[in-house]
């Protein structure tokens, strides 16, 4: 792929704002496992190899298993490997990432409301929004996977 601009070098204040969102999410009460599943699933949908590579490595370091990570894209068919909480977050991630289709459905929102607090739902939505922004930065600037 052709090398493109480096937004961090060209517009460092933009990255500073993105890292502020990451700082907020680091303090969120939703688990690191849920955050990584959000990042991986959204990145798969957005075909962001850079972020898939980064967040699968982070999930492994956090104690997740290779088998579960291999199955994230097929979580419905592999539901026994994911808790009800994780399945709900994966569904939210898909619906919000693919917002042009129907957005976050009433059914999914109701399910999430029965599992998570309002604060947790807000944190989940912000995690989904943030990784989608990072995906768009990485894909549009051709960020390369590091060895």
From TrEMBL:
Highest taxon in the source lineage: Bacteria
Gene3D superfamilies, A to Z: AhpD-like
Carboxymuconolactone decarboxylase-like domain span: 12-93
A Pfam family hit: CMD
InterPro entries: AhpD-like (IPR029032), AhpD_core (IPR004675), CMD-like (IPR003779)
Gene Ontology MF: a single term: peroxiredoxin activity
PANTHER family: 4-CARBOXYMUCONOLACTONE DECARBOXYLASE FAMILY PROTEIN (AFU_ORTHOLOGUE AFUA_6G11590), CYTOPLASMIC PROTEIN
Protein's name according to its UniProt entry: Carboxymuconolactone decarboxylase family protein
Naturally occurring in which organism (per UniProt): Arcticibacter tournemirensis
């Amino acid at each position: 792929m052709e090398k493109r601009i480096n937004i961090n070098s060209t517009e460092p204040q933009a990255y500073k704002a993105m890292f502020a969102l990451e700082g907020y999410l680091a303090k969120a009460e939703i688990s690191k496992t849920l955050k990584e599943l959000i990042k991986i699933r959204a990145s798969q949908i957005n075909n962001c190899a850079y972020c898939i590579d980064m967040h699968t490595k982070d999930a492994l370091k956090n104690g997740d298993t290779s088998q579960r990570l291999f199955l994230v894209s097929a979580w419905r068919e592999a539901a026994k490997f994911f808790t009800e909480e994780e399945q709900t977050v994966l569904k939210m991630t898909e619906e919000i990432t693919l917002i042009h289709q129907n957005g976050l459905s009433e059914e999914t929102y109701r399910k999430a409301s029965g599992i998570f607090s309002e604060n947790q739902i807000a944190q989940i939505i912000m995690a989904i929004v943030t990784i989608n922004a990072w995906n768009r930065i990485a894909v549009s600037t051709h960020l390369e996977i590091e060895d």
